[in-house]
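quick one, 200 residues, struct below
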Amino acid sequence: MELDLTGPHRDDAYMILAGLVTPRPIALTTTVDLEGRVNAAPFSFFNVLGDSPPIVGICPGDREPGVPKDTARNIRLTQEFVVNLVDEAIAEKMNLCAASLPEGENELLHAGLTAATSTAVKPPRIAESPASLECRSHSIIEIGDNRLIIGEVLRIHVRDGIFDPETWLVKPGSYQPVGRMQSPHWYARTRDMFEMRRPK
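---
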């Protein structure tokens, strides 16, 4: 099967790619608007992109053609955001943050999540998240209807017990993120891991 994303299958690209490129980590992203109102929204078009400097990328789609979602608008205005990673313990609450709420309504309150003060940026991190990455926007790249926001990671908050402080390796069994699978409603647990050492 060959799928031409420049022709007949162009309109199906989201379903095809979102189903194949999995599992994807989830960025439960917190931002604030110019009035200080908090917004929290999950995005699975997200990943870490580099380490020198440490950067992440999120790609929030538009609310409707030409109208950016609150996350993208807030980042453009304030240059700051926090990526809160999602594990099994907060997966259901993350999903509640995806609800279409009236403008200005706080998704954290709606989902029963706790805002915690960040160190280097104004948007709060989420206390229940296993790890939160405080970010400053580095650049925003618009390609067609896509908006890729690249953020430099300034601070990381990690739940106690996840890292071995001597090696900075994650302790096996201490961190169980969920991954986004195919649309519309599928996710994956990450409990079943295997080790495969690189050849020398």
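The radius of gyration is 17 Å.
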